[in-house]
Amino acid sequence: MIQLSHIDKYYDSKFQRTYVLKDIILEVKEGEFLSIMGPSGSGKSTLLNIIGLMDVPSSGKYSLYGNSVLDLKEKARVDYHRNFMSFIFQAYHLIEEMTVYENIETPLIYKGVKSRDRQSMVADLLDRFNIVAKKDLFPQQLSGGQQQLVGIARAIIGKPKLLLADEPTGNLHSTQGEMIMDTLKELNNEGVTIIHVTHNEKFAQYGKRIIRLEDGNIRSDKNK
């Protein structure tokens, strides 16, 4: 599904080259739940952003389903984001001026889904995440855990094959964090491929495979 070959990410200054990622070789198969760990500055989020086509490497090769994606034009990149992959962030990135319902519905509007179908799909997710009573509230009226559930609902409503989660529990207390991780595990059991960046050793164990980064290099890659 995902193949990264000799990926480097670096920044040049007048006198030196600083590497964020160096010689990353990584394959992720469809249906995996991969946790990426490492200290701050190890390159975790940069790696996730490259996989998610939000950043480009300085060198190396990246293919999805055997197709090179590093030279995609903007329209093709947008199509991947709209139809293939979704993101969950530590900062929930909900639209403050929109209700819970409207936040979840927005990706379907961009995809051109008919109003009647949108209503049904949003209703299913509101029910699944037990937030039907919150549908007319605005993000600032929700707890952190509730906001993250809305973020997950928005991310999966378009039925992505790949879900990229960057510290999704970072702003939550432990009980809320466990609720979010249980939700990700459930989605993975349904066939969604998940790549999850975390500092939390306990939450990393939800992954079926754990990669540890250090100084931009993969130091270990172990299946559980």
Task: Walk me through the structure.
By secondary structure, this protein is an alpha/beta fold. It has a single domain, classed as 3-Layer(aba) Sandwich (Rossmann fold), CATH 3.40.50.300. The chain is 34% helix and 29% strand. It is built from seven helices and ten strands. The protein has helices spanning 44-51, 74-83, 100-110, 115-128, 144-156, 174-189, 201-204, and strands at 2-12, 17-28, 33-37, 59-64, 67-68, 85-89, 162-166, 193-197, 209-214, 217-223. The chain has a six-stranded mixed β-sheet with strand order 6-7-8-3-9-10, sandwiched between helices. A four-stranded antiparallel β-sheet has the order 2-1-4-5, covered by helices on one side. The longest helix has 16 residues, at 174-189. It is globular and about 55 Å long. 38% of the residues are buried.
Name the CATH superfamily assignment: P-loop containing nucleotide triphosphate hydrolases
Helical stretch tally: 7
Radius of gyration: 18 Å
Distance between the termini: 20 Å
State the total count of DSSP E strands: 10
In short:
It contains 7 helices and 10 strands.
List the topology elements.
Layout: E1 2-12, E2 17-28, E3 33-37, H1 44-51, E4 59-64, E5 67-68, H2 74-83, E6 85-89, H3 100-110, H4 115-128, H5 144-156, E7 162-166, H6 174-189, E8 193-197, H7 201-204, E9 209-214, E10 217-223
Parallel strand pairs: 3-8, 3-9, 6-7, 7-8
Antiparallel strand pairs: 1-2, 1-4, 4-5, 9-10
Task: Supply the key terms.
224 residues, 7 helices, globular, 34% helix, four-stranded antiparallel beta sheet, six-stranded mixed beta sheet, Rossmann fold, alpha/beta
